[in-house]
Amino acid sequence: MRKLILSAFIALLGYLSASAQVGEHRSDFAVGFNGGYVMSNVGFQPTVPQGMHGGATGGLSMRYVCEKYFKTICSVYAEVNYASLGWKENIRTEDDLPVYNAAIGANEEYSRTLNYIQVPVMAHLAWGREVKGLNFYINLGPQFGYMLSESVKTNYTLDNVIAPGTRDANGLAIGRSSATLAQDSLPVKYKFDYGIAGGIGVEYSVPKVGHFLAEARYYYGLGNIFGNSKRDEFGKSNYGNVVVKLAYLFDIAKTKNVTRK
Q: Which residues contact residue 208 at a Cβ distance below 8 angstroms, ignoring those fewer than 6 apart?
């Protein structure tokens, strides 16, 4: 998966390099802001059953348009965002029922929120209207992040958790289906995160007003949050994020004496 993603990004950079040699020059710069919702989980190995952890994301956006190659508008797009990531455990029995813990009088619940500063830097390719109207675009490139803080929301402790595989006197499963518990108490080891982000979206431009963008994006983490040596609990613990967001950009600099549509 990593090799495939990196190969695709290298190919895209090659495309941009080729277009820069024969395309119509642009030197347009726009800035603005973005905001949206991120749904995340962590790819644990051994597997930890999870739902999607929901959180907000938002920050600054910047775009530099460098070329128009035939009908393709080629740009570099970057953001500086604050994002709430993490994971939310789906604690079920072997019979696929919620684990009810009599010691707390409720179903067991656990989620951990990790707040990051994220910086994606992506190739931005668009097709359609450049000045007024609609265009379609794709983004692809690396993303870097650094964890600022974390918090845990749970209603049990490891002292009163029902042991995995436990059954009652009638043979009904009342314990967890998963025996993996280390993630609940392990501290984050690696605060720096990195990976590949890619998305598709639409942009509507209004002269003298700005650019309105809507995008769906996926991020695949190439790093881990916990140690992954043979002595550690997990072989991997990387992020997978789905992001939906809106952005607004306004022009700071525009290339003069070029034909636009």
A: none
